[in-house]
Specification:
The protein contains 12 helices and 16 strands. The termini are far apart. With 369 residues, the chain is an alpha/beta fold. The strands form 4 sheets. Strands 6, 7, 10, 11, 12, 13, 14, 15 and 16 form a 9-stranded mixed sheet that branches. It has a 3-stranded mixed sheet with strand order 1-2-3, covered by helices on one side. The protein has a two-stranded antiparallel sheet with strand order 4-5. The structure holds adenosine-5'-diphosphate.
């Protein structure tokens, strides 16, 4: 192995949260060699202790693959290095508005290719967050670049479901969403502890959501899955303002009552002129050891709701114990048990969503009279 190849290989390792080769981020020094021993400096931006542990492990593993034992010295970036990284990351995050001097987050730029999928439900507890994670992980397994925005500000659960315990790094003006299973994630949960009630109201909430969109490095994700709060509240209204292209999916259970409450949230989305793309039924049945389907929460709610809203029923997710356990320990079922019935259904729904393509948005002002 010559040192040039090794250097290239190390430089190509992706920064675990920015998901860009570390050599492009100016994080790697030249290799030095003393007899048969190599060493390198890893330049770190300010981050909590332990933040770069996984990166160091990855670099060691890359060197070990080449049969080299590598010494890695973690060093703080100089002011100049940091300023360069900050401006690089800002350029990756923001895009110039045509004809102006302003810049906007790439996610919100007029020509963005990112599809924004919002998952809503009439009430809590129907499994909206589990479905958001299920679809996001399925899209990621299908090879897409994916992000999750946990907009369920009062009942955030995404960090736990993905097993993320570290807060986002802040580099200059940009927040870097923690990545798990290849998925970039942003949540209120990173900023408040589990037992702190969130009592934000209108303007503050609006501001927080704005920050999650404007100041966050989402990179070039193809899908942003948004876990919307249950009901028909302020958050959806705020988000619709920032993300007018948000496509909504309604999650319900087969129970008649749940279906009727879900209808209200769907109609609220329609009122905001958000394209409603389909219904996903959750907790549809339980498959017993005897291979029989048991309709624990009744039958037909999803179908009925889809019909009344005139959108397709995209799929039915069974009640699944590994799904619940995986959510509790941060191991999404689609990643941990990809062959299971529930994972296969998530993969199938993800494929359907992919095949649907983005919603066409008809703006009233563009109408031909
Ligand atoms: P919501 O976001 O609608 O409040 P969650 O996704 O947080 O709902 O789900 C509520 C609880 O139900 C969680 O403990 C979750 O693990 C569990 N759950 C959701 N969907 C299923 C399912 N299909 N099978 C088993 N447990 C589920």
């Amino acid at each position: 192995m010559n040192s040039e190849n090794l250097f290239e290989k190390l430089g190509a390792v992706l920064e675990p949260d920015i998901l860009v080769p570390i050599s492009d981020l100016g994080m790697l020094s030249q290799l030095s060699r003393r007899l048969s021993k190599y060493s390198v400096e890893l330049f770190a931006y300010p981050a909590p202790a332990g933040y770069f542990d996984s990166l160091i492990l990855k670099l060691e593993a890359a060197a070990a693959q080449e049969g080299v034992k590598l010494e890695i010295n973690l060093k703080e970036m100089s002011e100049d290095q940091l300023a360069e990284l900050e401006s690089h990351l800002e350029n990756l995050t923001l895009e110039a508005v045509p004809g102006g001097t302003d810049r906007v987050n790439r996610l919100m730029a007029a020509g963005t290719k990112t599809r924004i999928l919002g998952f809503s439900s009439g009430k809590g507890g129907v499994g909206k967050s589990s479905v958001t994670v299920g679809i996001a992980t399925a899209l990621a397994r299908r090879g897409h670049r994916v992000g999750i925005l946990d907009a369920d500000v009062y009942g955030f659960s995404i960090p736990k479901m993905l097993g993320i315990q570290r807060p986002p790094a802040v580099i200059g003006k940009v927040m870097v969403p923690p990545v798990a299973y290849g998925i970039k994630t942003m949540s209120v949960g990173y900023f408040v502890s589990d037992d702190t009630p969130v009592i934000w109201r209108g303007p503050m909430l609006h501001k927080a959501l704005e920050q999650f969109l404007v100041d966050v490095y989402w990179g070039d994700i193809e899908y942003l899955c948004v876990d919307l709060p249950p009901g028909t509240g302020d958050v959806t209204l705020s988000l619709a303002e920032y993300l007018p292209k948000i496509e909504t999916f309604v999650v319900t259970t087969p129970q008649d009552a749940a279906e009727r409450v879900a209808q209200r949230s769907a109609l609220a989305a329609r009122k905001l002129k958000l394209p409603l793309r389909g219904v996903i039924e959750n907790m549809s049945y339980f498959r017993g050891d005897d291979a029989k389907r048991y309709d624990i929460f009744g039958r037909g709610g999803g179908e009925k709701l889809a019909k009344s809203l005139n959108v397709p029923l995209l799929g039915s997710i069974p009640i699944d114990i590994p799904l619940r356990e995986g959510g509790d320990v941060g191991e999404p079922v689609v990643m941990a048990q990809p062959e299971s019935e529930v994972s296969v259904e998530f993969m199938r729904i993800a494929q359907v969503i992919e095949a649907m393509g983005p919603a066409r948005i008809y703006k009233a002002e563009l109408k031909v009279r």
